[in-house]
Automatic annotation (TrEMBL), chain A:
This is Uncharacterized protein. Keywords: Membrane, Transmembrane, Transmembrane helix. The chain crosses the membrane at residues 7-25, 31-52. It comes from Acetobacter oryzifermentans. It comes from the Bacteria.
TrEMBL record, chain B:
The chain crosses the membrane at residues 20-46, 58-76, 96-120, 132-150, 193-212, 224-242, 398-420, 432-452, 478-502. It is a multi-pass membrane protein. Pfam families: Cyt_bd_oxida_I (PF01654). It comes from Acetobacter oryzifermentans. InterPro entries: Cyt-d_ubiquinol_oxidase_su_1. This is Cytochrome d terminal oxidase subunit 1. It is found in: Cell inner membrane. Keywords: Cell inner membrane, Cell membrane, Electron transport, Heme, Iron, Membrane, Metal-binding, Transmembrane, Transmembrane helix, Transport. Belongs to the cytochrome ubiquinol oxidase subunit 1 family.
Amino acid sequence: MTKLLRLAGLAVALVISLLFAVFVGDQGPWYFAWVIGTVMIILISGAGAIMLDAQSNLSSDEEI
Amino acid sequence: MEFIDPNVVDLSRFQFALTALYHFMFVPLTLGLTFMLAAMETVYVVTGRQIYKDMAQFWGKLFGINFAIGVATGITMEFEFGTNWSMYSHFFGDMFGTPLAIEGLMAFFMESTFVGLMFFGWDRLSKQAHLAITYLVALGSNLSALWILIANAGMNMPEGAHFDPETMRMQFESFVNLVFNPDAQAKFVHTSVAGYVSAAMFVMGISAFYLLRGQHRQFAARSFRMAALFGIISTVAVITLGDVLGRLDYEKQPTKIAAIEGLWHTSKPPFEPWILAALPDDAKQENHFEVGVPLVLTPLITHTFDQPITGMHELEDAAGPRIRAGIEAVSALRRYGVTHSDADLTLFTQHEQDMGYGLLAARHAPNQDVTNIPEDQIDAVVKATQPDILPNVFVTFWSFRFMVFLSLWFFALFAISAYVSLKRRLEHNKLLLKLCMWSIPLPILATEFGWITAEAGRQPWTVFGWLPTFLSASSHGVSYMVFSLIGFVLLYSVFIAAELYLMFKFARLGPEHDSMEPHAQLHAPKPSAFDMHPTAP
């Protein structure tokens, strides 16, 4: 039951996101670009930090 | 039409410019740092590594100092519209007040509510809940900027409003047009992402300081890398959106774009140079010297190779008929206020779009009354008014160039920093680390220059093409304006001194927990983020 509710919640979020993308993407392309761009910036900078962890794990030197 | 003492107008302008520039020293950092905190905390929630929680808490502390002082300096500005710009508020209040009210009730309340939960909820909320709170703070602070910039875009490009001759003011017409104003869109993203650049430079610079001193190395290396990647993408976005704004100004605010480019005469595509440096002379209406790059200006502004950019002399000439029509419009409107005749209303409606130009002519009309200009003096009044349509070219030209040159510097610095960080050679590049450290204040300067470009370039209007600045102020006395100006300068200088003192103090102390081992897990419950128990380096 919990899984079903979670799935329903995600489905609702997906529908809202699609509606947002269609409406804002059409009416306000730069607002939409800001949303997408900000998410991308956060993900890439976070990935950079995780990559540094991986680099530290793979090499024995203390270089940073 | 009541005329305000020009000294009061100038002092009102100076006071608003000063309070806005003071306030905007804090805003960009808030806009960007919230999303950087969200990024750091996201990594913490995903990996579960303590070092990322330390990062979010430490940079959050510095964000808190900045946020508090930013709020204090911002609140006074909202009152200034009513106290110092009452005519503007009357004329444009519908359009300007709506987004400001939404900003206060929606965005500001949202960020202020959640900022407390963000600081004090670390050990009281689940990881996921706290992360959601951090994102809501970031969203709230950026939505604040959105509504403010929607209001500002209305001044630069009035959309979603019409002038009502019955009420003598701009009436609200379309909320959708107000929100989706192209100028608001481009300006919001440009400003918001400029905030990301400021925050990235701030984090990168302080991290560079730790690396130079060999302190908190693991903490600093991760902060540095996240900031460098955050910064390089943001800088590209800032430059892209700057180009969009330039294109919009080319279409809607030709005087601003001509002043920005120091273009006294219409350009000759495609060879017109983009002027790198010049000495614009507003009085003589010429540049004393020019150093330019050929073939750049036309594609840069028009995105074509054959469209000309109208120069300031030609814009002055084109304004002549509009000033004449504007005088007709203002005269018809004055008569309509008395007679309410359809003939006057029809005449006014014919020339409604030029009304602002008629108001602009008031300074040069006999007795400062455009409705009673003798026929033989109209030509002289129009001729005298034509140069008034231009902003201060020297200020607009150079503020824009400082902003652009600084943004190119950021692009280079972030790109090299990201590369060196990815190669894990940071500690071998002392010069780079020093440059990062000394560049901390530069994005703040760049954003200030950006505001000066946008707002000085909007002159001589408060509402572009509709309401001249010299008619927008309140009728205070000079002594009142000087007194309040001195008060603001003293108060805000104390705020800045406090901000700098606290920032330096807490930045020097460094993170609360210095996990030299990035994989260390500290399970012990910790006090709130504001409790400082610095460990010795």
